[in-house]
Amino acid sequence: MRLPRPSLPRAALPRPHRDDLFIAACGLTGGLLLWWFGLYVTGDHVFGQRWATLIPLTVMSAMEALRRTAPRFALIVATLAIVGDQFTNGNLATVLMFTDVVYAAVVYGSPALARRLPYTMGFITVASTGVFLAWWQNAVALLVGALTGMISFLPAVTGAIVRNHRNAAEAARLRAEQTALLAEMDRAQAVVAERARMARELHDMVANHLSAIAIHSTAALSLDEPATTRQALTVIRENSVAGLTEMRRLIGLLRDSGAETEPAAAPTLAGLDALIAQAGTNGGPAGLTFALDDTRETPGGLPAPVELAAYRIVQESLTNALKHAAPGEVRITLARGPESLSVAVSSPFGERPGPTAPGSGAGLVGMRERVALLDGVFEAGPVPDGEGGKRWRVRAELPMDGNDGERA
């Protein structure tokens, strides 16, 4: 039993464009009208029969229908049709449709065809003019050459100009889309950066107060001593009022960000004494003491972004010490070099008795981001204390000529 051979897929014929079908129908109709009234281009040719003119006309109109979907094929067949039309009485519609096929081959054809066709048609025009001059040796050859250029070279050049304009318009559109896309990406990055900045500011300003509230409220609930409870409630009230003040200030900044208001003063290192005093009040019941070692010869003269970052790093480090540090001394060290400011905060590392506050790790992330914005160096982790124990140390090197992108 012979098995049936699998049928090979047949090449799909290009489907003519609707506008091309209309152009082909108009060209064929106009050619038939010229043929009906006996209006020919020339007379007394090889095929002088009246019906012979219809063959190139029909073939040319069929190629007009394929001018957009199959430009190379249409050009080849149309060239044969226009050559064949020269052996008949000729039809003006056939010649006009050939010029449109040449134009369409440049506009809709491949880039290689669009580049080569104007040069090819120009060569054909010059060559045909030279042949007719050598053959006839009169001015009629120049007229024939001019007509050849009008139906071949001129449409090709026109198509090249139109295609170049379309390519330029498409390139401009793509550039506009890319510019819009880059602008949208920049806007999204700006929004993300602003949100990160707001998150750092909110965390640094409020986390310290909330941590103290959490620790002292836990102590007040766990110890049934009126004096301790009263002291804890006093600290809770002070931190809650301070936290509310900071929150209101931040909310006011967010609401007035689009208005013409004076910028709020950013915290500076001059306020470290008050910050450490507050930390001492909050950390006293947990057995924490705080000391500042400022070795800078000239405290002032720091760029505003560097001073703000240093203040926030100390503030967040003190907050983390209140949450997690074991009883002992928390030491803050400031040192100024020729090109950078060094900030270090070390605290006792170990098990802590009494109440603690939970941490999320956002503080370390915020400090690392602040230092990265200034192209500095940040380190955080346990280090030996020289007495067989360990201390938790946060250290940052802030270049004083760093990026000014971090603002208050």
Identify the notable features of this structure and list them briefly.
single chain, 408 residues, 2 domains, 5-stranded mixed beta sheet, 10 helices, 5 strands
Q: How would you describe this protein?
A:
The chain is α+β, with helices and mostly antiparallel strands and 408 residues long. It folds into two domains: 163 residues, no CATH class; 142 residues, Heat Shock Protein 90, CATH 3.30.565.10. It is built from ten helices and five strands, in the order H-H-H-H-H-H-H-H-E-H-E-E-H-E-E. A five-stranded mixed sheet has the order 1-2-3-5-4, covered by helices on one side. The chain is rod-shaped and about 125 Å long. The relative contact order is 0.07. The C terminus is likely disordered.
Write the layout of secondary structure elements.
Blueprint: H1 18-36, H2 54-65, H3 71-85, H4 92-108, H5 111-136, H6 140-222, H7 226-255, H8 272-283, E1 288-294, H9 304-324, E2 328-336, E3 340-348, H10 362-373, E4 377-384, E5 390-399
